[in-house]
Amino acid sequence: MKKFTFLFALVLFGFSSFGQHTLTLEDAVLNGRKYYPQGLIMPQWVPGTDAYSHLIDGYQTMAIIDAKSGEESGRITAGQINDALTATNQEVSLRGTWMLEWQDDHTVRFTEGGTLYSYDMNTSEITAHFTMAEGNANVHLSTYGNAAYTVGNNVFVSWSEDGSTVQVTKHENPNIVSGQAVARSEFGITEGLFWNPKGDAIAFYEKDESAVTNYPLLDITSTPGSLKEIKYPMAGQGSEYAKVGVYRKGSKKPIYLDTDGVEHDQYLTNLSWSPDGKTILLAIVNRAQNHYDVVAFNAKNGKRKETILSVSNDKWAEPEHAAYWVGADDFVWLSERDGFMNLYLYNTKGVMVRQLTDNDFVATGILGQDKSGDLLFTATGDDPRESHLFSVSLKGKQIQLTKAAGYHSPTVQEGGHYFIDSYSSVDVPAKDVLMTTGGKEERTLAEAADPFEGTNIRKPEMGNITGPDGSTLYTRTYLPYDFDGSKKYPVLVYVYGGTHAQMVTNRWNGGGPFWMNEFANRGYIVFTLDNRGSAHRGTHFEQQIHRQLGTVEMEDQLAGVAYLKSLPYVDGDRMAVHGWSYGGFMTTSLMLRQPGTFKAGVAGGPVTDWKYYEIMYGERYMDRPEENEGGYAENRLHNYVSNLQGDLLLIHGTVDDVVVMQHNLSLVKSFIDAGVQMDFFPYPMHPHNVRGKDRLHLMTKVLNYVEESLEE
Length: 712
Hints:
Layout: E1 13-15, E2 22-24, H1 25-30, E3 44-45, E4 51-56, E5 61-66, E6 72-77, H2 78-87, E7 101-104, E8 107-112, E9 115-120, E10 125-131, E11 136-141, E12 147-151, E13 154-158, E14 165-167, E15 176-178, E16 193-195, E17 201-208, E18 214-219, E19 226-231, E20 241-248, E21 255-256, E22 266-273, E23 279-286, E24 291-298, E25 304-312, E26 324-325, E27 330-335, E28 342-347, E29 352-355, E30 363-369, E31 375-379, E32 388-392, E33 398-400, E34 407-408, E35 411-412, E36 418-424, E37 431-436, E38 441-447, E39 461-466, E40 472-478, E41 489-494, H3 515-520, E42 525-529, H4 539-542, H5 551-565, E43 570-580, H6 582-593, E44 600-604, H7 615-622, H8 629-634, E45 647-653, H9 662-674, E46 679-683, H10 694-709
Parallel strand pairs: 41-42, 41-43, 43-44, 44-45, 45-46
Antiparallel strand pairs: 1-2, 3-4, 4-5, 5-6, 7-8, 8-9, 9-10, 11-12, 12-13, 13-14, 15-17, 16-17, 17-20, 18-19, 20-21, 22-23, 23-24, 24-25, 26-27, 27-28, 28-29, 30-31, 31-32, 32-33, 34-36, 35-36, 36-37, 37-38, 39-40, 40-42
């Protein structure tokens, strides 16, 4: 047995013989950026104008371009701003123009050392507006330059007008946390502070974690070692209780929305303000996560108003997007009610005005509105491996604006006539095009050279197979640079397999990390398949995993194995599997529940028993343990340790606060109890992912383990 380990992966690439540069694992993992094609850097639209900015000169200069003419109309450099800082005796410096964001058509702003600065490019003057309280985190600036942030578990606001700072909440109980994301950042929640449109009131999440169990993480950097306790709500156990507070400038204290309804145990999600600041909308999800209500609240007094719409599903109902307001009383809601995420126009009286889109593909977000008021939104389009920009009028007329195959990441001009279309594909390294919201291509702004040119890096091959239920399953395959179809090659299957993720996309390098190209060049095929349950395929495809995580996913992965074995150049007796997080769960499941399929597996940070995982994610897909005893037992990997055939390496960060180490340690204990040998490797003081220089150690361990296991 080996004493090696694994990782999950990042980048890689280099070059080969014949005068080519040879890709090394170190390059792939630590220096992979040079193999990513460089397009336009950090484009931003200048508010209220037809100009945009982007970064040049190693991020030290912001160039301003007139969209109509294509001519440069101005520049802001880090040197100019630093000269202004020195002239006003400020003891800070701007590290690069990547720190700048536009406030209006002639002013940029940035924070440094806890102070908000603005720079007027017309006068070359810099202004220090306020200094935030020490220990500030989670900083959110309003359009008008006010700052809301947290210090510890409390909310603070600093006002730009007079430079004053107010402590909004004053909780001393460590179980009360204000201003931070709630629900373990599920349901599309990424933040805990929300400015109203005028910038004179802030809404914030507040959670009471008194019922949530403390979970210990060992800190080995002290002598003796010490414990850091985190709050970790495991499936079936006590959860957090959330509220929403609102603080207005000049108020003595915040008010709280009247969110308590039928259930105390609920999730408050997808908060949004109406344009007039009078109404706050929330999606309120029951703990079972099979029903939610979109409810309006009076933002001034917190009173509960209308329940505008309700959504139920026999598997799960998961709101992922806040309302997008198109008027004081009208908003657009994204819903999967018809099987795919589509756009619906509602008013605050609870009337669905109309369904705006009726697509058999998935909308992924609303980016803004153009000059005519049409909505600009992203969606996969007909190929779920891609991302495109669409417009739709409030009458329901839809246009696909981006047509080139690939993954498009547009920068839209809010209320304007243009957008910058930045995209790549397996065949297009990176391209930036100025387009109108009518779909007309104005000019190419940047087009990257192929960074694989002159290297031994081979582009992946994209494909698909038919799954056991008839679904199309998309695949990505990396072949050796010197691939010879008459030879037999061993295979490494890289798997994730979980929800809200998609491994196979039509972007540069197929969306994969460069270590896959490097490993292929050692004489391996590296293969990935997106199984049922993965993202951007609609509810029928995604919800088949309900109450049985791992089961249908394995069926699809085994279909991928059968496909590989049908290829004349695949050595079906020498196959390995590797994945991290959900992919670690899938790797271990395949090794234990489908023994003999793979000679080796490397599982990083795996879920091993869903009762150990967090409530918000786990109960959505598996229900509570007492409600689905059979499902939890069937997918508890401890029950299959005696089945192991081949080599298995388990890896875990010792301070993992996402998939806690109890998963792996309890599984190791089961192996020991059964007298079954396997390998385990910890990464001390690393959380869920191993980053920095240690990542090279990790990938080296993973790939060495696979190679030694698959040696003939």
